[in-house]
Amino acid sequence: MSENKTVNENTKENDALKRKREIIKTLLIIFLAAMLLLTFFSNTLMNRSLAEITTDNVTSGKLTERVRGSGLVESNQAYEVIIEGGRTIDKIHIRNGREVKKDDVMFTVSTGSREEIEAAENALSALELEYQKALLAENADYSAENQAIKNAREDLNTAIIKRDEAYRNQSGAEQAHAQYISDKNELTRLSGIQQKLSATISAMDNDDYSGAAQEYIGNLVTLLRDYSTADNEYKAAYEIYSQAVEAGGDAETAKADADAKAAARDSAKQIYDTEKSRVRNELTVELSLNETEMCAVSLRIAEYEASVGNSGMSYEECAADVQAKQRILEDLIISLQKAQKADSISGQLSNLDLEAKKKEMDKLREKIQKLENESSATEIKSQYDGVVSAINVQPNEITADGMPAAVIDISAEGYTVKVSVDASKAAKLRKGVKADIMNSRSSGTEAVLTDIRNDTTAGSQSKILVFSVTGDVDSGTMLDLSIPCGSGNYDAIVPKSAVYQDKDGYFVLTVRSKSSPLGNRYYAERINVEVLSSDEMSSAVGGDIGMGDYVITAASKPISAGDQVRIEKD
């Protein structure tokens, strides 16, 4: 009985252990499945956030480089249809862009109306009134200027009398005055020395010798430069020492060099400071002595000026007064001469204006007579075969003198297109090459390069390409030209959309794959290239790239080198 009980208990324990193992196994399976699902979904979400790219493979072969440009069609020769002023446009027989033959009627015009004749008569009357007023202009009056000259001459004579009297009265005062002049000069000299000394001491205090007097500073500039050089050498050596310590290299040698340069710097500074202190002390003493002497000289000057302050003008002052009044008189005479000359020129100009008005009145009289004599309509005919490129008048409009009513391109002379391109591109072209016209409406239209000129615009680095155009074109039409520069075989040709440029030059982005437990991952990798040639769609490049490589041609959002990307699926 006890044996059966023991067997039952063992059986229960085995069943319990078996159930625990099943539970643990189930939990492990659930955990692994959850981890797998989370990894899958996180990878899917990450892929959705990546930029989707389009790629194209690198090819090799032949590429024809082209230069693109646009220009207006211009007639090689045109003539303007000029209709005399005052004619009314009754009818226009031509249209823009239409051909005309020689002697075809282009306009029917009639003479001016009565209103035009009246307007010309009114203009003549106004001009005659201006002419009569100009004849009544007053002559120039110089009485005030002559009186001023007379007064200035009297003042000069009075000053000469005073000067001569002062000359007769001067005797012993000359010596005192000579000393006074000497003291004034000495004061000026001492003031100059004082300014130099003060500026030099200030420059020494600031270690800036740009405003110092060179004769006082000796070799201080050289000593300061030696100290600055030694200090810079120490800083450079200390920087090398610091870098050696950070890098864990041989810092002892660098430290010894830095200590030696520090000692050299301190020595140079001590030499400079000692010499600067010595020179400054000497200059301070010299400045004090200079100021004492300035005080003595200033006192003598003040005493002399006080003694002669009430004695009237000296001979020199009288002589200076004579010279000043002489200049005033001369200036008045010169001013009068200038005024007379200017009035003479003004009179001549007035005479010219009168002559011009007289001629204008004669022309108006002739115009009035001509308008009155003309009465019949007139046909304006073309002088050449050509194409109408502009019509500048409207029906019932009155023509103006010199204004072209129409412009006719002489078709026999051909057409020209001028295109501005970079000088580097123009250097690849040769005269005689035929350009493809991208927007031509006629297959028979041709454009041939006939000349390459410098662009005369200030600062321009461009060239002007001149093309001779034949075929069905109109003046003023914009032509888009594609000019071949030559062909060549290249090892690496990529789409133009795959070539980028930044401050470091041209580059392409290729695709680099990296294996992971969940599959391959793709990254953008930059490769610097040189653009060798280009056409409308492709570019030949040189660099670490070859046929069979894949380059990125487009992306769903901006990408940079090193970014993870996903490849667009077909």
Query: Which structural class best describes the helix and strand composition?
Result: alpha+beta
Total count of domains: 5
Biggest sheet, open or closed, and with what strands and sense?
A: 6 strands, antiparallel, barrel
Supply Rg.
Answer: 51 Å
> Count the strands?
20
How far is the first residue's CA from the last residue's CA?
78 Å
Unreliable stretches (pLDDT < 50, length at least 5) are none
Give the DSSP E fraction (strand runs of 2 or more residues): 25-35%
Widest sheet: strand order? 2-10-13-12-11-14
Structure annotation, total helices: 9
- The arrangement of helices and strands along the chain is HEEEEEEHHHHHHHEEEEHEEEEEEEEEE
Shape: flat
Query: What is the typical, i.e. mean, pLDDT?
Result: 81
Helix content: 40-55%
Give an overview of the whole structure.
By secondary structure, this protein is an alpha+beta fold. It has nine helices and 20 strands. The strands form three sheets. Strands 2-10-13-12-11-14 form a six-stranded antiparallel β-barrel. The mean pLDDT is 81.
Summarize this entry quickly:
Helix content is 50%, strand content 27%. It is of the alpha+beta class and 570 residues long.
Output the keywords.
alpha+beta; 9 helices; 570 residues; 20 strands
Please render the helix and strand layout as text.
Layout: H1 2-49, E1 51-57, E2 59-75, E3 78-82, E4 88-92, E5 99-100, E6 105-110, H2 114-135, H3 143-169, H4 173-206, H5 214-217, H6 220-247, H7 251-308, H8 315-373, E7 378-381, E8 386-391, E9 404-409, E10 415-422, H9 423-426, E11 434-437, E12 446-454, E13 462-470, E14 478-495, E15 500-502, E16 505-516, E17 519-534, E18 538-543, E19 550-555, E20 564-567
Parallel strand pairs: 1-20
Antiparallel strand pairs: 1-19, 2-10, 2-14, 3-9, 4-6, 5-8, 6-7, 8-9, 10-13, 11-12, 11-14, 12-13, 14-18, 15-16, 16-17, 17-18, 17-20
Helix pairs in contact: 2-8, 3-8, 4-7, 6-7
